[in-house]
Specification:
The structure is a homodimer of 354-residue chains. Chain A is of the alpha/beta class and 354 residues long. The first copy, chain A, folds into three domains: 17-58, 434 Repressor (Amino-terminal Domain); 74-172 and 307-334, Response regulator (Rossmann fold); 173-305 and 338-353, Response regulator (Rossmann fold, 3-Layer(aba) Sandwich), CATH 3.40.50. Helix content of chain A is 45%, strand content 16%. Chain A contains 13 helices and twelve strands. Chain A has helices spanning 17-24, 28-36, 43-56, 62-69, 85-100, 114-125, 141-150, 173-187, 203-217, 235-248, 261-273, 307-322, 346-353; strands at residues 74-79, 104-109, 131-135, 154-159, 167-171, 192-197, 225-230, 255-258, 283-285, 302-304, 330-332, 336-338. A six-stranded parallel sheet of chain A has the order 2-1-3-4-5-11, sandwiched between helices. In chain A, strand 8, helix 11 and strand 9 form a beta-alpha-beta unit. In chain A, helix 6 packs parallel to helix 7, helix 8 (173-187) runs parallel beside helix 9 and helix 10 packs across helix 11. Chain A is elongated. In chain A, 50% of the residues are buried. At the A-B interface, helix 4, helix 5, strand 2, helix 6 and helix 7 of A face helix 4, helix 5, strand 2, helix 6 and helix 7 of B. Chain A binds a DNA duplex (30 and 30 nucleotides) through helix 2 and helix 4.
DNA sequence: AAAACCTACGTTAGCGCTAACGTAAAATCT
DNA sequence: AGATTTTACGTTAGCGCTAACGTAGGTTTT
């Protein structure tokens, strides 16, 4: 039977606005005005009130303030995972903008599970946030409905869609995949394989695969092998997927496309460990243009996405919206193909070999 | 001149408890009881109230609820950066526990800047969180004071200290460095170099370096070269640091210790690119035992830290404390040396060579 | 010098909810 | 059957703060 234990440390009763008012011999409203930096208090009293407030360690309660003023400084942000650099970079891009606007971000990860996101949105709405940011454009019906009904400015980031809940900024993943496919076809690749993460773990990536497929289909080819073993799009996941592909696929693909650059790098390592030369024996393709690519001696062919800029722009859109300004509602950001050292023009090479 | 633009989407007025009560023909308190899952409402009314609430899309306001009940479900968490897997893993460990306890995490990154942390703590306290988690044990005086005065349960994670603000759980970084130093000395290394990040970017890492130094000092040696160019403890940072060391240090060190495994891996790549064989020509040492190490063909010698467990334990400590239970106040977690393939026993090798 | 206008305050009435304490009616006990 | 307890509600009084509207005194206007 658990004994009612006293807390380790007694909680002190924090000073409230009334305490400050009394100590300063002024009304509560004067203190409120000073704390909010609002006009209507003489310089002398202002200084005095500030002094007393500091002395008493007074911090205005945001909870009470939000309730009374019916405004909020909270921004809810939902991302799938922290284990992908992409989302960390997007967050990084947003951070500064929100800070400057005096907004407080509440970040939650959903691990790509729609029902987690749904529950989170529910909890979030209860806090009356000034805005909400979701990753991707796939959400439960309930989530969309709740957000729409709440009237809370909502922004979907990373994917692009023509029909956002409210606003969106992102890249067109299908097109990105398609463009890369065209590029590879042009280079002469015809037997692609794909290595990614488990099917429900990244819907965007599957859009890209679809785009890739389309490009190859146009020359009568298709993705000959797939491996989706990994839970996270990591270096080690890419390595494992590559092992899977190389062990179980015959003939060996002429190019392996990876969910992202980290996986691609893991794949490159594995190929070279096996004595497969990249790009002579096999091509490697990533996605995102992550920092890692800047220092590799063999730079990965990849699609470069503007993550930090996207985060910053997203934050700016939302802030503008919160303050009632008209803003762009949908922004499609460009993806640029980086032609690295892990693919080559197979036509040319064949010529020079003969 | 900016025109006062109307918002893109008109905000709807959300239903409040009163609306539900009126629609259901009951008192406000009955609705409140149902929404909170508290006893005192007959099954029939309970069902009816729930139906009406759903129909009206009613979500109880956490802001009003917190104010009235003087309780909170918010946990503030401050970490230095999302760009290090360690903190993502710690967060991951905490997430589940907090969710189960019905607590909402608010995560902020400080980028290792004390004044950011200070401001964040200030903002956080204003929300009356149920608890606060800080990374590390280095905080501004004001931060410590504010937290202590607030009476909010506070937990410091990742570093261990005997004198926490309130509670702490972490590893002893100095000892971890020292133990690794002893290990390297035992293996016969005498000319270590260190590659990390900029000095103010990771105080823990510097503690480890101090421990390392001590171990080498005991055999009359010292860290012969340092490189702290990088901003983030990334693969590419490790590579750059290694280039720096190898270009500018003579004689070449016999072992390079890195801030973490990612950097160490970057370093290994660079060494091998230069034709330096690891571990025959040079040893490589990391820190943390990150996932990457599980798939490398040459596994990095490193100190394995229990990040996920630490996160989970931390969350449990804080939850226990919030609910008034007595808990451990300070937990020192073990660090285990993993003797990988990037170091070797230099004594033995010398014997076999002669 | 009276009218009009500031400026620096204070007072009142909530924001949406819950703790604490009613109070009837129903259930249980003796 | 009357006393006692329990259950199912409702009522009252805030939580800590701010919007909106006073109201004095001083300042400017004509």
């Amino acid at each position: 039977m658990p004994v009612e234990a006293p807390p380790n440390r007694p909680a002190k009763i924090p000073a409230k606005i009334e305490d400050v008012a009394r100590a300063a011999g002024v009304s509560i409203m004067s203190v409120s005005r000073v704390m909010r930096g609002v006009e209507g208090v003489s310089p002398a009293k202002r200084t005095e009130i500030r002094r007393i407030a500091r002395k008493l360690g007074y911090t205005p309660s945001s909870v009470a303030g939000s309730l009374a003023a019916a405004n909020s400084t909270l921004i809810g942000i939902s991302i799938p995972t922290l284990f992908e650099a992409v989302f960390a970079e997007i967050l990084d891009g947003m951070r500064g903008i929100f800070n400057k606007a005096g907004l407080q971000a509440i970040v939650e990860t959903t691990d790509y599970v729609e029902s987690f996101e749904e529950k989170w949105v529910q909890r979030m709405i209860a806090w009356h946030p000034a805005g909400v940011i979701l990753s991707g454009v796939f959400h439960s019906k309930t989530t969309e409905e709740r957000l729409r009904n709440s009237g809370i400015p909502t922004l979907e980031i990373w994917d692009y869609t023509d029909t956002p809940i409210d606003m969106c900024i992102g890249v067109d993943h299908f097109s990105a995949g398609y463009e890369m496919g065209l590029h590879l076809v042009r280079l002469g690749y015809r037997h692609p394989a794909y290595v990614g993460v488990k099917l429900n773990k990244d819907p965007r990536a599957e859009d890209r695969v679809a785009g890739l497929s389309k490009a190859f289909a146009e020359v009568g080819s298709r993705i000959h092998a797939n491996s989706r073993l990994a839970d996270t799009a990591s270096f080690e996941g890419g390595m494992k997927g590559t092992i899977d592909i190389l062990n179980n696929t015959a003939p060996t693909p002429d190019v392996i496309c990876f969910l992202n650059d980290h996986m691609a790098f893991g794949g490159t390592m594995e190929c070279e460990r096996r004595g497969l030369s990249v790009p002579d024996d096999i091509g490697i393709v990533g996605f995102n243009g992550l920092n890692i690519n800047e220092v590799l001696s063999k730079r990965i062919t990849t699609s470069v996405t503007p993550r930090t800029l996207m985060g910053a722009t997203a934050a700016r859109m939302l802030v503008a919206r919160i303050y009632g300004a008209r803003t762009e509602e949908k922004i499609r950001m460009p993806v640029e193909i980086f032609d690295g050292d892990t693919t080559k023009d197979r036509m040319k090479t064949r010529d020079s070999n003969t």
